[in-house]
Amino acid sequence: MTDIHIRPYTKADLDAVSEIWTAAFGADAPSKLVDQSISEKERFQPGLVFVAELDGRLVGTTIAGYDGYRGWLNGVAVHPDFQRRGIAREMVHHAIAKLQTLGCLKVNLQIRDGNEAVVSFYESLGFEVEKRISMGKLIG
Question: Quick check: is 130 in a domain?
Fold first, then answer.
C-alpha cells in the first residue's frame, strides 16, 4: 500500500471533505455544515483539522480539539472505498500526537449508540468505554 499522508486542512479541501462526510456518515452526515464547522474551528483553534491523502486523493478527515485538559476527536471519517487500510488509525495517532504537544492529558470522543464496529476500532487503539451520559443543546 502507498503511504498515507496526513496534513493540515486547507480551504481547497472543502468539497472533498464534504464528500467524505456524506459517504462516511450517510443520513447523519453533517456535510451541509462542513464549511461552517471547519471555518469556525480554524478561526477558534487553528491547526487541529487534518486530512488524509492516499495516492494524491483526499480520503479521510479528523478534527481535534483541546480545552486545556481534555482533547476531543470529532469528524474522524474515511471514505468507505478506502476503509480498512489503516487510514483512520493513522489519523487518530496523528491527532493525538498533536494534542500531546499542546499538553493534553486525556482524549475523549463520542460514538453514536449502536455503532459497535467503531467502538471495537477505538478499543483497539486503547480507548475505553466510560459510563457517561452525553448531553447537548443546539443554541444557534
Answer: no
